Every structure is written in structure tokens, then in C-alpha cells.
Amino acid sequence: MNKTALIPPIMPKQLLRRRRWYNRLFRALIAVAGSSVVLMLAALFIYLFSEVLPLFRGVSGSPLQPLAATYQANNAELPVVQAGWPGVADFSASSASGDYQLLASKNGLACLFSPASPAGCLQQWSLTDTGDTLTSLSWLTADQAVLAGYQSGRLQQWFLLADNQGNLMLRLARELPAQPAAIIHIAAEHNRRGFATLSADGQLALYYSATAKPLWRYATEITDAVDLVFSANNQILSVYSAEQQHRFALDNPHPEISWQTLWHSVWYEGFAGPDYVWQTSSAADGYQPKFSLLPLTSGTLKAAFYAMLFAAPLAIMAAIYTACFLPAGPRRRIKGLIELMAAFPTVILGFIAAVWLAPVIENHLLALLLWVVVAPLSILALAAVWPRLPQSWQQRCSGGAEVLLLMVWLVLVSNLVFVVAGQLDSWLFSDGLRLYLDQQGIYYEQRNALIIGIAMGFAVVPGIYAIADDVLHQVPRHLTRGALALGATPWQAVVRISLPLAAPGLIAAALVGLGRAIGETMILLMATGNSPVMNFNLFEGLRSLTATLAMELSEATVGSSHFRVLFVAALLLLLFTFVANTAAEVIRQRLRKKYQRL
Amino acid sequence: MKTEVTAKLEVQDLSLRFADKTVLQHISMRIPEHKITAFIGPSGCGKSSLLRSFNRMNELLEDTSTDGRVLLDGADIYQAGVEVAELRRRVGIVFQKPNPFPHSVYENVAFGLRLQGIKQPRKLDELVESALKKAALWDEVRDRLHHSAVNLSGGQQQRLVIARAIAIEPEVLLLDEPASALDPISTLKIEELMYDLKQHYTLVIVTHNMQQAARVSDYTAFLNMGQLVEFDETNKMFTDPSQRATEDYITGRFG
């Protein structure tokens, strides 16, 4: 080796080997890191799915070895036939708490009374008007519903509801699909709304109160059954015949969840009719949890819709202004400033919206509604007056200074609007607009979709703006220049060339904003009121999937139906945001290719 | 210059600066009507900038300042209150790289017409057809008027852009190296086209190609370092230039 050369002509073997080794090591490390990110994403999905799947698994049941047991009938007291009731007490059913008792005769004549104050029937009516014969009668748990089975195989569910005068009475809630044979026994589950029936041909069926379809069926050979009973944990169903106890082990952890209860309207106990309800817990033990995801989904979509209504036009118009009309310097500064908005903690936005914005808007509702109309008109008015202003004015206010003039003008107009609205409010409506709306049946909540539209819109603007500005700025210059060369005004060049070309990109920008609005949590949690109502009223609150997850996941028992339904909500959210963002990305890729071809 | 020629454009003491760089210095010249005037000169001499100052396209770049006057039919186009869009309708421009809009052939030509508020389909059809015929493109595209213009060949695209520019009947047509990105056959077609267009329009062309300037133009201006060195009839310029620099450039000694 030449000793004078600073760099040896051939790299030493050792160095070569070390370099190759480093190369391999870091390539492996990067590969591991990259694939573990993908794996983690996959694991997230798999975990969510694994928590959700048990909800939709069917009920399974298997017969156990029958026990020899002599059935001992409850030596219940003979029911007292109520005075003035013409029926014969063939059937008697007492509610779980003992507060209500129902007597019925085979022809369907029924009397509801309260043993505590047995002063005649609370309600006296006929369960059936088709001449069918009543064969079984049972209360469901928690005093709210009665089941009646008939000779023809019909099965009815009656709810205890208060009428207009506040009198309690049983009302027919639903007629379940008839079974082929007479229903001779009905047993109610403990602490939840399931029940089982046994028909004359030995057919067992397991139901849940909110779903019409049986969850489980089993054909037995038992024809001499005398009673049907659930064990205390609802996991064993026993059919008693004279000498034997036939037992069936049931695996039915989540009867209250099905596609129907999640997405369709369900007539729950205590309600006047079918409805979409999300109400997962209450103080009472015997409470029937209600898991309709529709109010939450619609709440999320409602909030996103109003936020987009506020944010998309603002962000896109801002992007048109900076990308198509501003020189590079101011554009860069404004873009930086707007993108800085994205770093604003949303908890502060939610806090400001709930504590300051909501009461202010409540007090100045008319002013705000007026402003929405007047502000754009006033800008147009200024634009119309502009060419008629003296030349010296125009020159002094060009090159960016016209924006300042516009700001001053807007502040003036806004002040005027607020003063005029204050006068108008007391002049037009004797008690103010808010009370007037109440009288018109438009319910106004202080924390409503309007607040959310503004607060969440504010959070969504930067994301939409950044992409919209990019795609508009990337419109090939030679095309806009070509339009200008043909005598187009700058505005015409934007409307006829830039906007049509960038339109897919603008849609992508809006989709990204939508994804963000759907996934937003803190602002919704703080400023919506979190009432799970289902409407699109601008002045009412909402409850979103995200806020529900934030609030309820900590209080749901691990593994319970409630817990798993929250995972369904989480999956739904992931799906929404995934679809929105993927669609946006696909559109942007295609647009990029299109730009390259021009 | 002969006196019977009327000047369509008159440049008076025009100077142009981009940011802190002087691009044109005190240029004065008269561009004759219904003739082809060619601007030649080495790269960066300011010939394209001079061309673009005739319809104020330089203003689209940032930080430009223009001094002096450019008169179009005797009226200064840099005066306050001049409607720039209308000026650009009267003085059309075609760039070096063809820039058809990503619309159909038909819509490309109709673009400027629609800007002028022409909406009746029959009238549009007529004007589009006549513009494409004037640009010698009609026979090639008559069957695919409603296909995308982006799929045309480079030469066809450039003639389409010319058709688009002449559809709105400009008085002056500025051509900024219109054939430099094209093959020889397309170049020939463009040159023939310019010859036809001369009867209706005043043409100003920037070119790198000395033969092209000699072939098509009636007058030639030689610019160097932002200054107008010589401006005369093409024949005279190419046979007997009065300036040494012009001769050096034309004969290929520099540039």
C-alpha cells in the first residue's frame, strides 16, 4: 500500500464488512418499524372486532341430564276475584315487585289491580277479541310488561303505560310471530327482559322483549310440562314435568343487542311508541338499557354537517383568495397563520364555545341571524361603491391595504347590525326572539348545533384551507395565464379554469375536514349538551359517537353489552374517518396525475 | 422606415424592471400595422419581456415596474383606467409552449368567445369553425371537435392556441417563440399560417431562429442587453445591417 496516499486505493476489507453490516442492520430496523406500524393498525381493528363480535353471536343452548324431581307448585294464595269483574280467574299473574296483579279468564277477560289497594280493577278489558283461548300469562321483570300466550300459538306483549289522565293501564305493544302450537307456559328471565315459551308440541323458544324474532328454538319431547322456570343467573332453563326437571343450559350473554335494536326503532317499556333511544343506565336496578346507535350517529353527522356548512365555504374562499389573488409573500404569511389555528387545543375551543359563545349567541340570536345576511351584502355594497371612490383613495388602499379597509367596514357594519337587532328584537317580538321561537314550537337549547357549527367549524377550517390552497396553487400557471391572455379578468380565470380543474381537490379538502369533524371529541363533549336527540334542528343539542365514548367507556362494565356497544360505536367512527380520508387521498392522487399531464 | 406605413403600436421610452434587475432600457420603436415584426437577440436580452409589455402580461409576475408609454392606436395602454382584460382581447398572445385548456377542441376556441358574452350555439359554431380554418387546423380536427385538446400533437396544439387567440379577433397577435418547441413540419405550417394571418392582423414574433426571422418577417428588431440595437426592414437587416453588433449576431459570432 502506498504510504503517501491519504485514501487507500482499495477500501480495507474490515471497513467494507462493517459498512455492509451497518447497511443490513438499519435496513432490518426500518423494515421492523414500518411493518410494526401496519401491524399495530391491523391489531387495533382486530381488537375492536373481537370485542364486538360476541354481541352478534347467536344464542346457544343444550339439554342437560334431566333430574328426577317432584314438582311442587307454589302454594300461591288463591286470587281474590275483584268486585264487579265478570270473569273467572283462570290465570293469575303477579308482577315481580308484587305491586300489580293481573287476573284473566280463558276467554280473554282481564282485570288489572293493585293488591295494595284492592278497590276493584284498575283496568278491566278483553285481551283478545278474536275468540281465541288464553293459555298462558306472565309478567316480565320490573312490573312494566305482560306476556299473553294463546291456544292458536299467538303471543302478545302488553306494556303498562299511563294514559292522558295519568291512569295506569296495559296496552298492546306488539304481537309476536305466532307459533304452530298453543303456548302453554311463559317464563320471564330475572333482571332482564328476556323470556322463554313452551308450546303444546314441546317447542321451546327464547325471546328478548325488544326483538320479535326468537333468539333460540329447541324442540323437546316434553308434553306433560307443568312449569317453566329460569335459574337466578338466567343460564339454566328448567321445564318441570310431574316427575322430572328437564334442564337446558343457555349461553345468552347479550340478548339486548341485535341489528334491530341498534339500528331500528324499538318500542321500549314505558314508552308511548317505537323510538330510537340511547339510554344506557339509570338509577333503577330493573332498568331496561336502550342501545340505539342512530341518535349518536345522527348526532355526529349533524355536528359534522353544521361544522362543514360553516367551515367549508370560509376555508375554500380563503384558499381562493390566497392561492389565486395574493402575491407569494402575503400568501405565505396568511397560510402560516391559518395553519397555526390547527395547533389550537380543541379543549380551549370547546371551553370558549360552552362558557362564552353559547350565552352570547343566546342573547344575540337575532343579531347573529341578521349578520349572516347583512355581512356578505355589505361586502358586495362596498365592492359596488369602490370604483366610484376618488382615484386617490383607490390608490392609497391598493396592494393589500384594501383588506384593512374591508375589515374596518365589516366592524362598522357588525356594530350597526347588533344595535339594530337589539332594537328590532324588542320591537318585533314582545319577549325576544328566543321566547318567540319557543312559542312556535322551535325548541332552543343554549348549547346547540349552531354553537358547534361555529366552534368545530373553527377547528376544521385549517385542514380544509391547507389542502384547498395547495390544489388551487398547483393549477398549472400556463393555463390561468392562457385565460388571462384571452381577455379574461382574474376572477373569470379563477372561475373558468382554476376552480373546475381543482374541484376534485376541493372536494378532497372538504372530505378531510369532514373526517376531522366526525372524529372531533372535546368540542362536542363540552359544548353540545350531550342529549341523545335525533333531529337536525339547528337550535337543539346533540350527542356524538365520540363524546359518548369519552363519557361512557369509563363507566361501562368490561365485557357487558354496554361496553361492547361502545366498541361498535368506535368501529363506526373509525369506518367514517377511514372512508372520508381514504376517499380524499385517492381523489388527490388522481388530481396530481391529472396536473402532471397538463 | 417608409412613411406610408402606419404604426399600430408605438413604444416610447419604455423601461422595465423586475425587482432590482433592469430588463429593458429606454426602448422606442413603431410597429407597423399588418406586417410581421420579428424580435431577435440573444437569450435574456429582453425580447420576450418587450413582447409581453404590449399587453401588460408582465404584470402577472411579481415586483415589476414599467416606465414609459406604449401606444396602441395612439392611446397609452399603461394609463390608469385602462381595462386590462379588454386590452388583452385586442392584443392577443401565444406562448412558446402550447397551453391548451383541458377542455375539448371546440371549448378551447369558444373560451374567449364566451368571455365576450357570445352564447348562441349557432354563432359560436360559426366563429369556432372560421377561427380553426384561419389557423389551418379545421381539416385535422373537424371530426374530433369535442375530444380533449390535450391529446392533439404539439403542432396541432400550437395552432389550436393560435386559433383560440384569433377567434376573438384581436388587432395585434404577439407570438413568443411559437415554433421553438415544434418539429420542422409543424414549424413550416405555423410559418405559412403567419403569412396568411398578416392580412388581418399585426403580428409581432419573438424568435431564436434567424432563418425564421428572415423568412417570415417584414421588419426585424435586434435587442441586446435590454436595449434596442437596430430596427429596420428585414431585408436590410439581414443584408446590410448598420450596426456592428447586429452583424455579429446575425452571422453567428455571438449569442
Automatic annotation (TrEMBL), chain A:
It comes from Arsukibacterium ikkense. It is a multi-pass membrane protein. GO terms for biological process: transmembrane transport. The chain crosses the membrane at residues 25-49, 303-328, 340-359, 365-386, 406-429, 449-468, 506-527, 565-587. PROSITE patterns: ABC_TM1 (PS50928). Residues 297-584 form the ABC transmembrane type-1 domain. It comes from the Bacteria. This is ABC transmembrane type-1 domain-containing protein. Belongs to the binding-protein-dependent transport system permease family.
Automatic annotation (TrEMBL), chain B:
InterPro entries: AAA+_ATPase, ABC_transporter-like_ATP-bd, ABC_transporter-like_CS, P-loop_NTPase, PstB-like. Pfam families: ABC_tran. GO terms for molecular function: ATP binding; ATP hydrolysis activity; phosphate transmembrane transporter activity. One of its GO terms (cellular component) is membrane. Keywords: ATP-binding, Nucleotide-binding, Phosphate transport, Transport. Residues 9-250 form the ABC transporter domain. CDD domains: ABC_PstB_phosphate_transporter. One of its GO terms (biological process) is phosphate ion transmembrane transport. This is Phosphate ABC transporter ATP-binding protein. It comes from Arsukibacterium ikkense.
